[in-house]
Amino acid sequence: MDNSILRLPAEQLFEEELNALIKAETDPVPEGWRMSPRSVKTYICGGKVGNVEITPKYIGHERLVEIAIATLVTDRALLLIGEPGTAKSWLSEHLTAAINGNSSRVIQGTAGTTEEQIRYSWNYAMLIANGPSQEAMLKSPVFTAMEEGAIARVEEISRCASEVQDTLISLLSEKRISVPELSLEVPAKKGFSIIATANTRDKGVNDMSAALKRRFNIVVLPSPETLEEEMHIVKTRVEQLSGSLDLNAALPKDAVIEKICTIFRELRAGETLDKKQKVKTPAGVLSTAEAISLLCNSMALAGSFGSGEITDDDIAAGLQGAVVKEDKDSVAWNEYLENIMKKRGSNWSGLYKACRELNE
């Protein structure tokens, strides 16, 4: 494993676990897959194979993971929907890593994504010199996945224009891609599928047509149900990320994680955890992923400019940026500080004072 690479793909980062699962396989393996659906679930949800501990990649409803995996066994595509930070892309990457051993066939949906990026484009220098040929063709990740009988990923599909989204309708219906310039049709091999993700906050940006939605099995990934579950997710991911980054700081203590998750959950829900007091909600999502990022940034501050132990000042700096993204968010944050955090006693007083100083 090359430690100089900032972010390794899942199939390299967890290569030992994947190899252990493949080696120990006893169940039937679908065509085009490297392991059985049961082993894919073990890889995603965690377990043990021989002496190898399989770390959980997705912490949440295991039944949702089973539905997602079962969908990919059929000829249906999979659409993962949820709030920002609910691990849609994370789950998509790890599913393809386990099933195919290659999670890099990705199309990132944006307003600038074109139909050619979904299907194929051309090397125009070769096209002008020699005319259309397979050598001049630049195949998309979806095209390559169809040829190889593998899974392609389309991230943030609702960010793509409607006409670009609709390119997928014929591909998912006919399971073949046409190249009129070469009078060629490429059929999809068994094992081909698409995992798409969509952000519920982008609903209405480019709504998916009913025709396209019918080509997908839809799995909605919820936010963590309890404080304890969210703390477990945050703690696990911070430990994993800190191992690959030179943060030079100690891992955050449980009490620190609990404070961050409590603040995020209360501002997200618009009420305190005991449901006794309403709070204003900021414009941002304050997702679990943002809590993870906040703690990693706090570790970087502590390691680079502090003692290596996360302090209230380090946390306050991250909270300010996470919560206050628009001018009106300052009002909601100030009210939360004065009406909620200030009244929570000595355990919260240090963080309150640090946040208060940044707000002045």
Q: Summed up, what is this model?
A:
The protein has 360 residues and is an alpha/beta fold. It has helices spanning 10-13, 15-23, 37-45, 62-73, 88-100, 115-118, 124-130, 141-148, 162-165, 167-174, 210-213, 227-244, 254-269, 288-305, 312-323, 327-339, 346-359, and strands at 47-49, 52-54, 77-82, 106-108, 120-122, 137-139, 151-155, 176-179, 184-187, 193-199, 216-221. Strands 4-7-10-3-11 form a five-stranded parallel sheet. A two-stranded antiparallel sheet has the order 1-2. Strands 5-6 form a two-stranded antiparallel sheet.
Name the helicity range. Answer: 40-55%
CATH class of the largest domain equals: Alpha Beta
How do the helices and strands follow one another from N- to C-terminus?
Answer: HHHEEHEHEHEHEHEHHEEEHEHHHHHH
How much of the residues is beta strand, in percent? 5-15%
Strand line-up across the major sheet: 4-7-10-3-11
| Helix/strand structural class | alpha/beta
CATH architecture of the largest domain: 3-Layer(aba) Sandwich
Q: What does the largest sheet look like?
A: 5 strands, parallel
Task: Tell me the count of domains.
Answer: 2
Number of helices, counting only DSSP H or I runs of 4 residues or more: 17
Question: Could you give the count of β-strands?
Answer: 11
Shape: globular
Cα(first) to Cα(last) distance is 47 Å
The average pLDDT score comes to: 91
Radius of gyration: 23 Å
CATH superfamily of the largest domain: P-loop containing nucleotide triphosphate hydrolases
**Can you tell me the CATH topology of the largest domain?**
Rossmann fold
Low-pLDDT stretches: none
